[in-house]
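Q: Got a minute? One more chain.
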Amino acid sequence: RPKPPRTPPPVGRSTRAMFLNAAADKLKREQDKRKADLAKRQAAERRAKMTADAHRREREDLARRERQEEAQRRAEERAELERVLTNNEGVRWERTFVGRRSDAAMVKGIRARCDDKVVLPPSAWRELTNAGAANVGSANGVFFEITVVNARGGGTTRRTHAGALGFDGPEGEAGLPAPLMRRLGASSAYVAAAEGAEGAEESPAEDDPPTDVDVDVALDVKLSFRRLPKGTWVKLQPRSADFQGELAADASVDLRELLEATLRRRCALTVGDDVSVVSGDREYALRVIEVSPDDANGGAVSLVETDVEVDIAPSEDYEDAMRRLAEAEERRLAAAAAVEQERREREELAREEEERRAEAAERAVKEAAERAERAERYRAAASGRLPVEPDADAAGGCVPCRFQLPDGRTVTRRFAPTDPLAAVFDYVISAGGAGGGGGVW
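A: Always. Here it is, folded:
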């Protein structure tokens, strides 16, 4: 006769608790992971928001600075116009001419104040007279601010001042002596660059050495009437150290006479002008860096009928050497600061990493203690549920069992034939075979 199917014994409360505890641990780990992921997302969102806010503030600051700079530029233009009108006693006159080389002073035999006097057409004199400039400038002579108009119409460059030699030139043209043309940057190469390269936007640099000016060279120049005060003091800076090394140190050279002869050929000085001092076959360039008075004239003074005190500043070569030394020292300090900053950042990163490791170790110890405590509770609960172990010669018999635990230990115990299967699981749990609270066999 076939045997009836055997009904498995019911699962006890200890087995259910074991599986429930395992599920609770898994749920807790998943919740902790979700919390950590949420914290990371929130931190990334905060960083993104802070970056976006920083970029927005930068754009707003840039727009505000541009508006402020535009307002400041307009205010400076208004102030400059007001300054010019005040200095010119209300007279305003300016006109654009084609500047060409003129040797009118040489032809007329004029040697004093001849290097920076211009020849203008008769219409310019009529306009100046109608504007009242002739009366304003009658005491010190008529002076003009001369600027080179950019070939592309993008502004003006090369600024200086000059007097008037006469008003008998051709209409539309301004006759400029060769030294004045050189100060304005005129040369054959300049004109070739302006006419042959339509996209050229820059004139020769102000540091370019002067070159001879051909009679065919022409510049678009703007002349503006200016009333210049009589100069009392100027400071000149040699371009090269040769001036102090050769000329100023030579006892046989009368430097004062050379400077007086040079300045007698000029009727005005402008900050930024070059003054050429010739001694024998050598020519030394000195730049005008300061003038006095310099309160309302844009750094320009008249040399007509006045005594001027001249100071010589250290040469540009010397200042360049000092500037290179200062830049080298600044680079060294910047490099040292960068190294120090990098060291501090590494120390900060190491400190943060050490704190993270300490926190992780502390968390691991805490979790291990919790697991051990939970496992001990499981084992104690399972041990309390165990039935009494029968003797080997008990009247009802016994069932000896041997168990191989996960840690390699082997344990044995006797069970009564009437003990439930759950008692076997409880014994394994109490013997430490179920880990920290539950397991599968």
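A: Residues 13-87 form the longest helix (75 residues).
Q: Perfect, thanks.
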